[in-house]
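fyi for ur records
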Amino acid sequence: ATAKEAGIQADKQYLPITVIEDGYVSKENLKNAGKEEQWLAKTLEKHQARPRDVLLLMVDSADQVIFLRKEQP
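which gave:
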């Protein structure tokens, strides 16, 4: 039985899209997330980080941002 047949109502899926991974900006994923370079710049500024400082930056369709900074040596 599918979830719907079992009477379970699934919420919208808000799977996060990785925008920066290990300092690398994925312009394709930025576009897929419906975001622009300006949004990314503001988000990085808010966290006082440059792309190379970022281990992981993700955003989901509910605009929740997950930000993990690289460990500093």
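The first helix runs from residue 27 to 32. thats all i got for now
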